[in-house]
Design goal:
single chain; mainly alpha; Amino acid/polyamine transporter I; about 70% helix; Amino_acid_permease_CS; transmembrane helix; Phenylalanine-specific permease
Length: about 475
């Protein structure tokens, strides 16, 4: 029986049919949603983006944040229509076709495997700030510990993610309050020069021109990767009809506070010309303020952000593999659950592949991060594209009376969904024009070929399971 076949209602019994336990409460869902929007893309990647766009990066984050909200509301409409674990591939399978579901499930799985490798590599790098130990040892320890935690129960995953997210949120709020104090009270080394005029006094709000701002959109969108993770938790949320809409509706203020607000405060205290690529803007800001402890604090925060992302990868990969297996589009052995309701073999297989990150750190400890980071971008965007197309098609069917209306409609859809799709395709074009980001696009045809051949083999061997059945 597939997860699609058991999803005959829209309430709490669905997760029982899937075999999962509803172990994620409202507190954990909210923090998973918040944490999904805050990662190393903000703590580290913003430095490069600031050097390219200056203060206008604030506008880039605001516009991209609006697009992310459209994506999340589209996802929310689908989730309230049918809340299931492995939601992206389920919706693609139902509203686009069985091949789309197959591609989406395996691509999102790949996204988190590669992201897990990337983040455990980053975490190992951050550990060298305190201790001179080989990166591969740290990477191995982190991978094994997070793997073990994910096998115990979904509740433990949620608790880990809650505290990981709490660290990130506390750090950003603390930075905003410190900057506000400097602007109003004038303390620290930056107190005499801090002013909101820094937002336009050094070459204007667009010091590198509009083009410089547009170029940063791909960096900005990468920073928002994993915001859709809350959708994967639908099948294990205690009260999805209440908790998921609340979590999704907090997206605007999360982006306003943690991205726009934080950048406004930092760039008001420290001129944008002081930031450099490869250096965290948070570290640079603390140094300008004369707060030497800031570097250690930020290093701990980005370590937490990396471990949070790897933890999410462990969680989501096992669920995606099980969803594919339940629908006959993956090995049947991945359908097995432990007594605590965790997908043992799917998580184990994914964690084993993440151990490739340990080998990468052993072979190339100096440039390991750059060797894998670009592979995650295009696969993450594919999930967003499938969410938007699925929502557009679902809304059309619901409006014709062929399907029940979702109680959580996306405002302005389908026009907002079409706008978000065009925006994402525009970002992909920007990636094609950027030599560094272009690697992702080179990998896409290879992955598409592998999936195409695999699906053709699946269809020839088992045509019944290659098709979606509701």
């Amino acid at each position: 029986m597939t997860s699609s076949k058991v999803a005959t209602d829209h309430g709490g019994d669905e997760a029982v049919g899937e075999g999962y336990q509803r172990g994620l409460g409202a507190r954990q869902i909210q923090m998973i949603a918040i944490g999904g929007a805050i990662g190393t893309g903000l703590f580290l990647g913003a430095g490069k983006a600031i050097s390219k766009a200056g203060p206008s990066l604030i506008l880039a984050y605001a516009i991209a944040g609006l697009v992310i909200f459209f994506i999340m509301r589209a996802l929310g409409e689908l989730l309230m229509y049918r809340p299931v674990s492995g939601s992206f591939s389920e919706y693609a399978r139902e509203f686009i076709g069985p091949f789309a579901g197959f591609v989406t499930g395996w691509t999102y799985w790949l996204f988190w495997v590669v992201t897990g490798i990337t983040e455990v590599t980053a975490a190992a790098t951050y550990m060298t700030y305190w201790w001179d130990i080989p990166q591969w040892i740290s990477a191995l320890v982190f991978t094994v510990v997070l793997y073990g935690a994910n096998l115990i129960s979904v509740k433990l995953f949620g608790e880990l993610e809650f505290w990981f997210s709490m660290v990130k949120v506390t750090a950003i709020v603390g930075m905003i309050l410190i900057c506000a104090g400097i602007l109003t009270l004038g303390f620290s080394d930056a107190g005499d020069t801090a002013s909101v005029t820094h937002l336009w006094a050094h070459g204007g709000f667009f010091p590198q021109g509009i083009g410089g701002t547009v170029v940063t959109l791909q960096i900005v969108m990468f920073a928002f990767m994993a915001v859709e993770l809350v959708g994967v938790t639908a099948g294990e949320s205690k009260d999805p009809e209440t908790t998921l809409p609340k979590a999704i509706n907090t997206v605007p203020w999360r982006i306003a506070v943690f991205y726009v607000g934080a950048l406004v405060m930092i760039l008001s205290v420290v001129p944008w010309t002081h930031f450099k690529p490869g250096v965290s803007p948070f570290v640079a800001a603390f140094e300008q303020m004369g707060l030497g402890v800031g570097a250690a604090i930020v290093n701990f925060v980005v370590l937490t952000a990396a471990l949070s992302s790897c933890n999410s990868g462990m969680y989501s990969t096992g669920r995606m593999l099980r969803d594919l297996a339940l629908n006959g589009q993956g090995p049947r052995l991945f359908t097995r659950l432990t007594k605590s309701g965790t997908p043992l073999l799917g998580t184990t297989f994914s964690a084993a592949l993440m151990l490739v990150g340990v080998w990468i750190n052993y072979q190339w400890p100096g440039d390991a991060f750059e060797k894998v980071v670009s592979f995650a971008t295009i696969s993450g965007m594919w999930a967003w594209i499938m969410i938007l197309i699925s929502q557009i098609r679902y809304r059309a069917k619901a409006d014709r009376g062929e399907l029940p209306q979702s109680p959580f409609k996306a405002p302005g859809a389908p026009y907002t969904s079409w706008f978000a799709l065009l925006f994402i395709f525009g970002v992909i074009v920007l990636m094609a024009l950027d030599a560094e980001a272009r690697v992702s696009l080179y990998c896409a045809p290879i992955w598409a070929l592998i999936l195409g051949v695999s699906y053709r083999m699946l269809r020839s061997r088992d045509p019944e399971n290659a098709a979606f059945k509701r």
